[in-house]
Amino acid sequence: MLFLASLIYFLGPTRSYWAGSFLPGPFSGDLRDAQFPWNALCFGTAPEPLKLAVFSKSWPTAAAAPGGMERHAPPRSTGPSQPAATRSTSSPPPSDRAARRAADLREGSLHVHFAANDHGSRERVSLPHWRAKDVADVAVTWHGIWYENMHSKLFQELLWGSEGSHQVGGLEEAMPRLVDEIKFFKSYKQHICISKSAGEVLVNIYQLPQRNVHVILNGVDDTKFVPDPESGARFRRKHNVPTNVSLVMGVAGRLVRDKGHPLLHEAFSTVAQRHPGTLLLIAGSGPWSRRYAELGPNVMVLGPLEPNELSGFYNAIDVFVNPTLRPQGLDLTLIEAMHCGKPVLAPNFPSITGTVVLNEGFGYTFSPNVKSLVEAMESAVRDGPRGLQRKGKACKEHAASMFTASKMASAYERFFLCMKNAGYCHYPLPTDC
């Protein structure tokens, strides 16, 4: 049996290990030598079923909301060929453990078993390294590490460290924990990264062998997130979005500080004064919802949306804004917006510029400070709806080529087959498309 431990998100250094385009030319050879995301390839139907044990820190037990770590787990556990037997173990919140342990989920060949994971690990991982180091067939997917945490704390300290009410702290703890983490990463044999920059970190900083580091990008259900102007118009009418606005910017997710909402709040207050026809549409909940409401009629706080409203939300806006201060891998909200044909405005973190916003044709990037964010937002205002539509079309094509749940699941499936039998590591096989 093969094991997949789905763990935490990350950021890479500036030197591009996977330089250039995703797939500069036709590829043939050993997939373990691929220096690009596996999503760029077209894999055929799996020649045999797989039995997998998947360990995840969380699993969606209710309707999905924008963002959320648990949304990454199911697509990795079910693939195009539906494995013969799949078992997934996860840890629900402490308050729900007793109830959910008695109510395991079964969906066809998928069996989700909820179990406590109170092992006291500093790594905050689903499968501790001391349990994994002696198991041969273990692969981990990293969704965030202390290298990322250190950068996040640094950005926040630079923004707010001088303000008494915004002391960030924790920077002095980040380096020792990073060193400790680098030491135990070698306990896991195969490492799957969710962005190109992630591979740079593991190879260049964590010093893992190149052949043990692979890139499989996140994906979403592209049948649910599609360009649909009519659904966008319905969404605007339902939520009473003013008809006289010239441009609508949207943001979705948890409205908390490390997601960059103090930064967006200050930047948009400037943009709204200079461009009064611009509206900010906010989907989500958190401490900053009340402060956004203080900005007046240029801001609408919708609160959390039902999952079936998310596609309508993306279709109702002209550009999607992600102000996060966490240099994480691939934010699903960015990918969902791109699938709906919307350009994105996001920080210039390596994980974003190297995988999502590859160039200005896909949207806008900014340094994590107010001045740079204002400049990026004003660039979007100058481009206007028509310019944004052109960028949105490019985003849709890019997302469809790389960020679909089926491409991600197919890549994971081939990766597991490669672990099981080296013959499947060759590409292309006669069954590949």
How is this structure best described in words?
By secondary structure, the protein is an alpha/beta fold. The protein folds into 2 domains: 2-219 and 404-427, Rossmann fold; 229-402, 3-Layer(aba) Sandwich (Rossmann fold). Helices cover 35% and strands 16% of the residues. It contains 14 helices and 16 strands. The strands form 3 sheets. The chain has an 8-stranded mixed sheet with strand order 5-6-4-3-1-7-8-9. It has a 6-stranded parallel sheet with strand order 12-11-10-13-14-15, with helices on both faces. A hairpin with a 2-residue loop joins strand 5 and strand 6 (110-114). Helix 4 runs antiparallel to helix 5, helix 7 (229-238) crosses helix 10 (310-316) and helix 8 crosses helix 13 (370-402). The longest helix is centred in the C-terminal third of the chain and has 33 residues, at 370-402. The radius of gyration is 21 Å and the shape is globular. The protein starts with a strand and ends in a 6-residue tail after the last strand.
Label the structural class: alpha/beta
Taken from the alpha-carbon principal axes, the silhouette is globular
Quaternary form = single chain
Average of the residue pLDDT scores? 82
Number of beta-strand segments:
16
**Poorly predicted segments:** 6-20, 80-95, 97-102, 119-123
Helical content stands at 25-40%
CATH topology descriptor of the largest domain: Rossmann fold
Rounded to the nearest angstrom, the radius of gyration is 21 Å
Termini separation comes to 27 Å
Based on the coordinates given, report the CATH architecture of the largest domain.
Answer: 3-Layer(aba) Sandwich
* SS summary, helix count: 14
CATH class of the largest domain: Alpha Beta
Largest sheet: 8 strands, mixed
The portion of residues forming beta strands comes to 15-25%
H-E string = EEEHEHEEHEHHEHEHEHEHEHEHEHEHHE
